[in-house]
Design goal:
The chain is built from 11 helices and 8 strands. With about 250 residues, the protein is of the alpha/beta class. The chain has one domain: Phosphoenolpyruvate-binding domains (TIM Barrel, Alpha-Beta Barrel). An 8-stranded parallel beta sheet has the order 6-5-4-3-2-1-8-7. Helix 2 links the parallel strand 2 and strand 3.
């Protein structure tokens, strides 16, 4: 990651620590994203899942349910190494998220002693000095309005990377679910070129556990690649086993 190499991770949608630990210890990933936008995972469970991820030597990211300063504060206090902010369509959306990640005078984040500060005042001071600036702020580009504003969005300081929301983006273009259409692919290239030009890491979530597609995205220049989800790994693994053994 430090040398602009491709970094691989995956997506977690269920709050079962045994599953989190199993995926974290496969040796394939550098980070795992806890999805609280499209799941029933609570803030309590986020903190527990992050412990498992980080004690396994990986970074823990959280895909937020919305661009909300209070939610961002709680997730970062719990110890997230990075956040993924959904539906970022404008510079003001980026600024809202970035401001929520930093304490004054740079931002508006409220102070409190939490896990990320080791629950102590000295830990809070140390966080300000060493860890605050290392928080990875990533945005989700998932609407044609964002594409129209993409150069301005990526010119905002402190954005580490982005991920595409392929289903939402295609829907906003009048082609719901057709994220491999020529029109959508054209916009994906526009987004990626703008990101690379401005030092923002291009990211893509390959939903299906498809090695060929992962290799394609790597060759296309994506630097943050999320491979499938916990539930799809389970489902596809089960299907593959049953099919291989000619079970009905």
């Amino acid at each position: 990651m430090k040398n602009d190499e491709v970094s691989f991770g995956s997506w977690l949608t269920k709050p079962y620590n045994a599953i989190v630990e199993t995926i974290a210890k496969t040796g394939y990933f550098e980070w795992l994203t806890i999805d609280i936008e499209h799941s029933t995972i609570s803030i309590n469970q986020v903190e527990d899942m992050m412990r498992v991820i980080q004690l396994s030597g990986l970074e823990a990211y959280v895909r937020l349910s919305k661009n909300d300063p209070v939610l961002i504060k709680r997730v970062l206090d719990a110890g997230a190494d990075g956040i993924i902010v959904p539906m970022v369509n404008s510079v003001s959306d980026v600024e809202r998220a970035v401001n929520a990640c930093f304490y004054p005078p740079k931002g508006i984040r409220g102070a409190g002693l939490a896990r990320v500060h080791n629950y102590e005042p000295e830990g809070f001071k140390n966080y300000i000095k060493t860890k605050e600036k290392k928080t990875k702020i990533m945005v989700q580009i998932e609407h044609i309005d964002a594409v129209d504003n993409i150069d301005d969005i990526f010119s905002t300081n402190d954005i580490y990377g982005y991920f595409i929301g392929p289903y939402d983006l295609s829907a906003s273009m009048g082609e719901p679910g057709e994220y491999k259409s020529e029109d959508v692919i054209k916009e994906l290239e526009t987004i990626k070129k703008s990101a690379i030009k401005q030092g923002v890491k291009p990211g893509y979530h390959v939903i299906e556990p498809a090695p060929d597609e992962v290799e394609n995205k790597k060759n296309e220049g994506y630097q943050l690649i999320a491979i499938s989800t916990d539930m799809l790994f389970l489902l596809e693994g089960m299907k593959s086993c049953l099919k291989r053994n000619n079970l009905p």
